[in-house]
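Help: why these numbers?

___
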Amino acid sequence: MSFPISSALLDAVVLSALEQEDAYGYRITHHVRSRLDISESTLYPVLRRLEKSNYLTVYDRAIDGRNRRYYAITPAGRRQLDTFRQDWQSYRTGIESLLFRGGEK
């Protein structure tokens, strides 16, 4: 059984993937797909949404005579990632208490 992945969780995963270094779309996709079962086409709308929200900036770099589009996390994106992490901890704790402890507190 697989669990659906929400758009907020995808946003958090992509921001996390860019936390240490800038990357181009295929590299981000490969990194995320190595851990989550999602289609390649899923992440490009996520990248556009994060850019529109000012959580990512985009720039082009010439590689072997071709332009490659790179994504970089912004300060606002880092703040949002911190918020996602705090929210995830609360969510995870609640779900685990239901699944593994029968809802006991």
